[in-house]
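Supplementary Methods, section 5.1.

A reviewer requested that the exact input to the structure prediction be made available. We therefore reproduce it here, unchanged from the version used in the analyses.
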Amino acid sequence: MLQGWTPPGLWALLLWLPGLLASGSDFQHHRYEEMVRALFAVQNECPYITRIYSIGQSVEGRHLYVLEFSDNPGIHEALEPEFKYVGNMHGNEVLGRELLIKLAQFLCEEYQARNQRITRLIHDTRIHILPSMNPDGYEVAARQGPEFNGYLVGRGNAREIDLNRNFPDLNALMYYYEKNNGRNHHLPLPDNWEQQVEPETLAVIKWMQSYNFVLSANLHGGAVVANYPFDKSRYPRIRGRTTHADTPDDKLFRKLARTYSYAHSWMHKGWNCGDFFDEGITNGASWYSLSKGMQDFNYLYTNCFEITLELSCNKFPPESTLPGEWMANREALVSYIEQVHHGIKGMVYDENNNPIRKAEISVAGINHDVTSGVDGDYFRLLLPGTYTVTASAPGYLPSTSTVTVGPAEAIQVRLQKSNTLNLQER
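The structure derived from this sequence is encoded token-by-token as follows.
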């Protein structure tokens, strides 16, 4: 792991040096078998920094393949954050699928070319790319193709279930807890939840349970805007409109959404697809309210912060437009991954230097906690500023410290069975 994360602005020009650009000649729409071959081709080309694994199968038995990038594939390194991209959740929204395949090829090629920015990103981050969460729906949409695809044909899975309305609804519980001083993170799942979700949804939830993801984005189509939580409104419609449903991390989510929007060639301009979104971002519920969505579930059930990226007016764009779409999204895709290194991170130990898992990390003034992973490491995305941070775990006295956060800070918190706080900064 490389020490000392360099702010992305210092490396931005290095990414686009002449001779290091991914070729635009191989852009195409990938059917399932073609997508699998493309992913394995990347793994074969860059075997020492990639790994392919399946998180499960679709209704029709297609594997949900993930391509991982890391300097130690298959291993979680303490203090190295986990990041994920998810594409093609709606089968007929295909640009995200193609962008993620291209991103995988690009990361491999740029690493081989010793691009400093990409090398640092792969050495300091464990990146997981799931190009297609809904391969069955894609095949339905692809049979019609770009010219004749209907707005909803292939949107759902093989059972025509909308996967972005299929996660356990934790928002209602969260809104109840807000009024009754209940839990603010890692909310419990309902009884028999596994029987209530589709195989693709189940696979993604199990994936979330297996990796301590810190940051994520879910790639969609049909609009051009970066959408951030909450998606579900707290209140009924007022004058025919839903209202903004902010999370305790609303300012941070706005910043994450703006990071993508302003790095995108035109998203930040606001007017796209006949709609206007100021700065190219929107709160989900402010746009329209939906229940059982994936981005809200990430925030309420895991340590992961996720936004939804709507990337194209045309859900199934012609192949001829793919090179231009890649150029429009390339910098944004990389810049967004880099956001995983902002805020604080650290280790939680007991007095015998044993790591403590599931310790709660709370920040005064922000009513949303995160927890440490199995190795005792934690990650808390924060905007620059000064914060009072407390680590607590059953059987230990809380440890509290004041921390000043810059573009990328890491702190180490030691929990002990005494009032003594041992805090080290990195």
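The chain is about 30% helix and 25% strand. These observations are discussed further in the main text.
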